[in-house]
Predict the structure.
Amino acid sequence: MAVKYVFVTGGVVSGLGKGITAASLGRLLKARGYKVTMQKFDPYINIDPGTMNPIQHGEVFVTDDGAETDLDLGHYERFIDESLTKRSNVTSGKIYWSVLNKERHGDYGGGTVQVIPHITNEIKTSFYKNTQVNEKNTEIVIIEVGGTVGDIESQPFLEAIRQFKLEVGQGNAILIHVTLIPYLKVSEELKTKPTQMSVKSLQGMGIQPDILVCRTEYPLDLHMRSKISLFCNVPVENVIENKDVEILYELPLILEKAGLAKSALKCLNLKDREPDLKDWKKMLDNLKNPKYELNIALVGKYSSLHDAYISVVEALKAAGGTYKAKINIKWTEIEKLTETNVKKEFKNIDGIIVPGGFGKRGIEGIMLAAKYARENNVPYLGICLGMQIALIEFVRNVIGHKDANSIEFDIRTQNPVIDLLPDKIGVEDIGGTLRLGSYPCVLDKSSKCYKLFGTQNINERHRHRYEFNNAYREDLIKNGVILSGLSPDGRIVEMIEYKDHPFFVATQSHPEFKSRPNNPHPLFKGFINACLENSKKSRSKN
């Protein structure tokens, strides 16, 4: 069958959950047996979010093929359980960069380069590209457009959608518009006018939405939906209520009940099928009905914006769900951690996780967290920076090189436990110049990591510029560190663990990017299991 396209836009305000709505639809369509993939189009001029401050923009999600992408791709992968690619995240920066390179190359034959048709044609080409690679494995493409209708920077994308819908014909491309139905407390009523005006903005660009997903705190009765239908020119059955949910993964079931997938398939002239959501419902039941509670300290550099570690948080929750454990995350302020308050800070903590990050701010505080976990047998999971910090702390306080450091934090250190990757020496650009994407790793069969994965050869995603300095290998091994994972050539240390510790495991990779709500990553499962054991021991002592 011809590939079908679903565009998802947002109106009224940002932060309505377009990405979660798109991902939920993807899950519902996949549950019906359709082959689904997803794309995100972001209007910002950056080539990708790789150089953007996580405190401003949130997490940078990395794909298997090494693309630094928007955090919404993490939601897509978790919901539809498919690995996406560099073609799955397109920014205005990438579009303009491509057009300007073609102009310099002479591809336009000396013609005047304009937004229409050159920019819009480039955008439409990107719509197609994501399916051309996996054409046999794609039946429906869901494409989210970032920003809000009415933003200046979004206009070329919307114009491209208008043209694209006309080109592929009715029933081959539809548009779902996510809007807000605000509640005015003073008059105790829901208001539809913001949705009406947002749809009118779309109509003014020549686009008629096929489905409206209305974000609301209160239920929409038939009268309210009929009013929206009348003024927005959308069938009443295609006005979908999207209420706030307590757990993110409830949304597919809420939208299934509201009829989103049924409406989308009808608009696409596709057959509706009975969805298989048994595994999803079981996973959700585990999350909603926990038997245990765990307190996990997340010791990160960007904890002021929780979205900076959204994949880590979701991986922890997914692993917790496996053991019916509710995860309470304590966001640790690393710059306030000191030798005198570290014990108090981690009192009643069942495990410590240190995620990735760049720069020297707060590093000594994170070092104290790693030391506390090592000395007090508290389960520890180090991710990327978390592995580097653990190794520096070990060389300082166990081996005895008190000035041990990473050259990222101290270029003059006499003991550079963490050094620059050889192929990054002399590289001045910071965008897209890290070790990015999926790399193979060979596990030591005697290690905890091997037991957790159940196989010796694995692949994990990376995003780093620095690596462990092999000059310190022998000293580490002599003092009880297991190099549990190495690159196939044996050169790069990918995973480590401590021999005489209940669970102290760290990896140079980012396992959170491959974790799924109904299929948690082995390292997170191992960590949460160790935290449960630690919690039981602590309670038995008390």
